[in-house]
Each structure stands twice: as structure tokens, then as C-alpha cells.
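User: My advisor, Dr. K., asked me to get a structural model of this assembly before our group meeting. I'm new to this, so sorry if the format is off. These are the inputs:
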Amino acid sequence: MTLAQDPTLASFGHDPWWLIIIKIVFAFLFGLVGTLLGVWMERRVVARMAVRPGPNRHGPFGLLQTLADGLKMAFKEDIMPRAADKVVYFLAPTISVVCGFTALSVIPFGPMVSIFGHHTPLQVTDIPVAVLLVLAVSSIAVYGTVLAGWASGSPYPLLGGLRASAQMISYEVAQGLSIVAVFLTASSMSTSQIVAAQAGNDTSWGPVNAPSWYALLLLPSFLIYFVSAVAETGRAPFDLPEGESEIVGGYFTEYASSLKWALFMMAEYVHMLVVSSVATTLFLGGWRAPWPITLWSGANSGWWPLLWFFGKVAVLLFVFVWLRGTLPRLRYDQFMHLGWKVLLPVNLVWILLLAGINVINDWRTRDRLLVIGGVALAALLIAMLWPTRRPEPEVPLQEQVDARPPGSFPVPPIDLQVPPSPRVRREVAERQPATVGGPSAGGQPEEKEG
Amino acid sequence: MSTVLAAAAGEMATGEKVVFWILGPIALIGALGMVLARNAVHSALWLVLTMLSLGVFYVMQAGPFIGMVQIIVYTGAIMMLFLFVLMLVGRDASDSLIETLRGQRVAAVALGLGFAGLVCTGVYRALRDTPPAGLEQANENGNVQGIASLLFTKYVFAFEVTSALLITAAVGAMLLAHVERRKEDKRDQAARMRERFAPGNYPGPKAGPGVYATSDSVATPAMLPDGTSADRSISRILPTRELTSSEKTPKGTER
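Assistant: The format is fine. Below is the predicted structure of the whole assembly, which you can bring to the meeting.
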């Protein structure tokens, strides 16, 4: 279902130069203002979750706090560690932040609109492989992190850089595979076409109409994409490259202050914006309005879709902050286990299943039922014949304690009862209530039971 | 997009020319830098520059898919693994400049230049007047679709065999590097914890080195209540040393 305001690949590449510059500046401002507001939102939301006020001094609700911080960082002393590799040390934060902004160029912010008489899509550009461009750019952005760790010439940043490279490579695989299901269903890799493909309910699976948002239609892919996106951005609970409590500050330990550190912070938030925008585009219907708003016929035309797009991105950003306020950091082996042994196999099985469904959709009913029955039977047999692990017999605690070799570290007895503190009774007894008008007005103080 | 379409028409478009003459020298500089850089990580970074330029060339020549894959796979994954290994080797690992064979460098440069010249002139003379053909037909249904239909029909066997070869290589490398441990040799967290609390081992943290008015060196052991020094309080690689008389002298704190 393609409407008149839906951009196609042919609607790109006809803009005059000034319109291209306007669009690029808009995408850049989206990243910049998104960073300012994102930092503010993160600090406010995390503060609210920790029951404290958060920044509230500069501007209404502390909105200008990030601006003040940015100004402060611009005027701080720029430190160059003596052991640093100067060129690479300077280059690393730049790579991070440039890659973040580049990815914003293929994000569709809205439908065809009219700007100074030009009918043009609200998107800098689109190519047949736009989603791959986002992946490519994010794989280059890892260089910023890794090189920062290496160029600092200090052990902790190096550890952080190594962690970052392992993390990004592992989770890029899961991320790339989760997008495959979207490509299969939308049969396109261009972002504007994927948004268009999520417009209507014309994908039908037998009697039921499939939901139009890929987040519902391809729920496993969406979940895997989001988890690996959190890992790609290096945010809690996957912030192992930073790991303040383990490796000081990770890859940017030596970037103590100044604009370079600010660039890293900005790169992190722009990256968050990018993955949220991509998740919105690929899975949440892009700039299209969600259900109750679509009852209004003008919801998906003109400049309104910008609002829906920003709303969806803001919700996803909130989830990022929510995760950070809720979850502790994963241990490294658990983290790798999740990436390689859970997300990857689940993803592969899901893609296989989806491809199978797509193939048998065209078959006759009898063949289709045969195949479904066969697959179900095989799954049932495997589930039934899978060897169960026998639980180890549980040894009572007293026996475990008795089995310890003599001279072991002393442990308190299992049935230990803490005796009442002798101080409690005395304090209560000593504290006489203040009586007004003689001792008869107040009663005897009650003895507190220990 | 417009430049890509124009490139498909066979004649070199202005945009493509501009990009070529900007990125061509950059790619060449990257290649030279990769060979000439003393530091291994710098070498890898120069190679990344060349690979990125190549990726953009592919995109400009109406092959957007292969261009993106070049950047994702080669630049993003393979070079990153290279960097990973180089960083583990250590950041000061540089090439030594001592020639083991006399005249080796001169010979290598001469032969390299000769080979490059041969290849360049050969390719130039062979392809000078060849018009590009078939690009429009190949990209008729879209670049990605064209590649996909070729990969999964005509070249499906070659593709599968290549992937089998790669998988075999990966499994082989893993097998060579894998250290098989017997089940009873594996120490899990519970076993290590039991070991920590076993008799003869003190489970708490070790005491810090001695901090006294006269010395706060990490080589000065802490003192136990009976006046003997605690050996566990200093690092094993540091020698225990007695302070010299000049070190023992209070430094300007006395009257």
C-alpha cells in the first residue's frame, strides 16, 4: 500500500544544492540537540529513579545544564599524555563522532513535504543498501573506541579498547542477522522502502492479517536487535569497555577532560540516537503514526510525521536510560555467552523458520500441513528424547560443615541465635519519660522485651 | 544515487571522476603508508584508509552492495581482528631496520616497482579501448537482487564450497589453538572458593606495606604485633631492604 506522500528511491537525488545543505544541517542538528536533550533526560530520569532531584539549576527543569557542561569542557585544559601516540590519540574521538553523524543521513524523518516549493522527502538521501550503510558506519565507529584505548599508552585504556573490539565484533553479527528478517519481509534494504512496507496490512498469513509493524510481526528480531544495539552503543548493562568499577574508565581513561572527552560523550549519545532511529525505522513503522492517531486521516502527511518519529525515538531513548537505571553490569563471560550462544543461534533458527514460512505460503494446503506437521513432530521428538540432566543429590548443610578438614576457617554454628544485646534493656530503663506535675501523671515505663 | 545511475550508463560521469581523482591518491597514500609505517598499528590504519577508498570506488561503479560489504567485512571485522592481535602484541612492537640480506631492500624496491609497472601497463593496454558492457542488464532488477539471483542459482555450488572451506579453516584453527582439559582439571568458581577457605590459606586480603614516619616505600614490609616483619605485605618481586641511615634520618621535621 503506497500512498502519494511515500517517497520511493526515484524521489531522491533531485534536490538543489541549498536544499541538500538544509537537510544535512537538519540531520546534524538532530544529533546535536538530541545529545543535549538526551544527556539532560538521562540525568533527570536516573535521578528520579534514585529518588533525588537531578540537575535543576540552569534553565527550566535544568534543561540548560548540558549546555553549561559543554561550555565548561570547551574551556578546560587539553591534556596530552606523554606516552600517547599523538596523532591517533587526537583522531580517535573524531572518528567516533563523525561516524555517528554519518549514519543519520539515511534515516527517514518524514514523508514527502514541500520545502520552498520543492517536493522532497524528509531524508538526506537513500540508497538501495541504506541499512548496510548504517552497519558499515557503525563498524567503522568501533575504530574510535579501540584506537582511543591503544593510543592512550596506558594499561587500563588498552584493556577497555580490547574489550570494546571483542564486544562490537560479537554483537555486530547478532545485529546484522536480526536485520535479515526485516530484509526478507520488506524485500528491500532501503530505509524509505522499509518504512513504506510497514504501512499497510496487506501481508496476510492465511486467514489472519499480519500486523504491520515489524516489531510485532518479527518480535524475536526486534528484541535481538535492541539487545545488540545496547551492546553496540556500550551502554549499561553492557558497558564493559568503560567498566568504571573494574578498569577505571576503560578506553577514555586518559581523556580526562576537555573537548576530546566531550566528543566521546557526544559520540555515545549520537550512537544511541542512531540505533533508536534505525530501530524506529526498521521495526516501529518509521515516521508513521501509531494506531489511535491513524484514525485521523491527516496523521501521515505533511510535517506531522516528524512528531511521531521524534516521539518513538524518545521512547526508545527512555528505555536505554531505564535499562541503565535498573540493571547491573554483566560479567564478561556471561556477556559473551549471551551474544554467541543465545542471540546468534536463536536468530539463525528464527530466520530459517521465517524463510520456511515464506516458502510454504505459496504451496497447496495439503503440502503445507504436511510440512508443518513434520516440523512439529521433529521438534516434539527432540524435546522428548533430549537427555535430562540428573540433579546432584543435595547434601545437608550440617554434613557439609562436618566434612570440612580440621583447621578450616571458623564458621558460626548453623542454628546460631543472636543473644539479645544487654544494652537494650538498660537504655530503656534509664530513659524516664518527662512528667509534668509530679510522677503520678506518667505511668511506669514499660520494659522492652529483648 | 544519480551518480550511480549515471555510471551505469557506461560513460564516466563528472561526479565519478571527481571522486576518483580525490580518493585515488588517498588510496595510494594509504597503500604506501601501510608499507612504509614503522609501527604495526599505524600500518594497519593506513590499510584501513585504502580499504575505505576501495569501498567507495565500488559504490561509485554501480556496485553499492559489494562496496558496503567491503567496508563491513574487511574494514569493520577483519582489520579489527588484526588490530586486536596487534594490540595484544604490544604498542611498541616496531620493525627493526637491520638488513639481514645485503642489498635486499634495494632489490625489493626495484622488483616491486617493476612488477607494478608491468601490471599497470598490461592492464592499461588490454582495457584501453574496451567499452564497459552489461552493467545495465546486471543491475536491471537492482544491484542486490542481481547479485542474489546469481549467487543462489548459477554460483550456488561454488558459494557453498567456499563457505565449507572457510568453516573448515576456522574449525581447524580452533582445534589447533584449543587446549583440551579433563573435567576434573577444570576449576570452577565453587572449587576456587573452597580452596580459598581451606586450612593453611588466609582468605582475607593481604596487609599493605608498612607506612611509617620514616618511610612509605612499597618495599618496606608491615610490622606484626610481635615486631617481626610480615612477608605477605610486600610484593614478591620486590626485594626486602633495610633503610640506609640517610633514609632513616627524619627529613627536616625535627628541631
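One thing worth pointing out at the meeting: Chain A touches chain B at residues 9, 12-14, 85, 88, 125-129, 132-133, 135-136, 139-140, 142-143, 146-147, 149-150, 153, 158, 161-162, 165-166, 168-169, 172, 176, 189, 405-409 (CB under 8 Å).

User: Perfect, thanks a lot.
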